[in-house]
Amino acid sequence: MNHTTVPAYAAPSPKAPLERITVPRRAPGEHDILIEIKYAGICHSDLHTVRGEWGDDGNFPIVPGHEIAGVVAAVGSGVTRYAVGDRVGVGCFVDSCRTCENCLAGLQQYCTGELGMVGTYGATGRDGQVTYGGYSTHIVVDENYALRIPDSIPLDAAAPLLCAGITLYSPLAHWKAGPGKKVAIVGLGGLGHMGVKIAHAMGAEVTVLSQSLRKKDDGLRLGAAHFHATSDPATFEALAGTFDLIVNTVSADVDLDAYLGLLRTGGTLVQVGAPEKPLPISPFALITQRKSFAGSMIGGIPETQEMLDFCGKHGLGADIELIRADQINEAYERVLASDVRYRFVIDTATI
Question: Where is the Enoyl reductase (ER) domain (predicted)?
Fold first, then answer.
């Protein structure tokens, strides 16, 4: 089944509503696979990008979507990793230089080569063509940049794992969340709810730090042992010096010094949310108890596969609300209003 153009939903310009268009897809090369996309998650990064909030006008029109779950529809002559009918996913990037130190170490998301990490949408690939994301019916990717989705995870619940899942799994694994560790997740949204599930499955004692107690029942259901409101100053007094690891998922201004105060000696606060403006931090919040402030961004191909296998083993998927393609603009407004529990997923059969 050869495709030269496929239907998709795109933002024609910054801040413009998304609309249905057609976009080109290359014919599968020797090592490419053609994926029939079944579901695509809506990530907050999609909103930031199409609204021009990260300071880059990008390659408009932009077809967002880097939480992709589907089925292999065709394979190139040299493909060895996948066969037609396999359940596969595509995450936040579709290529990298493949030769730099990070790529060779399986850390393609930190590629330092000339090509750099090629984003799934709005980037320029090695063929000089703009990449178009998962809000479409099909995508062609190199087999080495696709992931195998375990049979135990429904495809619609698996799609958000390709960004939200790995974004939380990577820091939790790197900083060794597990039995005996106290982990706090800041924010119970698309990222945060996966952080609670994964940290709990790793064996850590999980606390949710949310603006209010509105989602407390959900947090406890997802695996948190404790739930506290950050709007209450008493929370920061009661929990001072408590946590080994805090993962901040929110993309808004927060008082980093206050959150650093919740860490034990030697603890780490990891930033995975990407706010529009810089966040101030006091050196004294770090040096007085040998605390660390760190960042983390998605994961490489090996770690993303590890995450999917972990989620498959533990029966983890995202909590989703399935929508039609003609509801994308409405869903964007609801994401901005934090009115989703906890990830919108597009049924791409409706595009």
Answer: 16-346
Least confident of 57-61, 179-183, 331-335: 57-61
Element (H, E) at 247: strand 243-248
> 38 near 69, Cβ under 8 Å?
yes
Say what the pTM is: 0.95
Per the CB < 8 A criterion, the answer to whether 255 and 269 are in contact is: no
| 108 and 208, same domain (yes or no) | no
Q: Label the pairing between strands 19-24 and 5-10.
A: antiparallel
**At 234, which CATH number?**
3.40.50.720
Give one word for 259, left, alpha or beta, with left for phi > 0 and alpha for psi -120 to 50.
alpha
**Side chain identity, residue 269:** L
Coil, strand or helix at 85: coil
Cis peptide leading into residue 7 (ω within 30°):
no
Q: What's phi and psi for 147, nearest 5 deg? A: -125, 150
Fill in the amino acid letter for 86: D
Q: Is the pLDDT of residue 206 over 50?
A: yes
In 10 A of CB 330, how many CB atoms? 13
Cβ atoms of 161 and 308 within 8 Å: the answer is yes
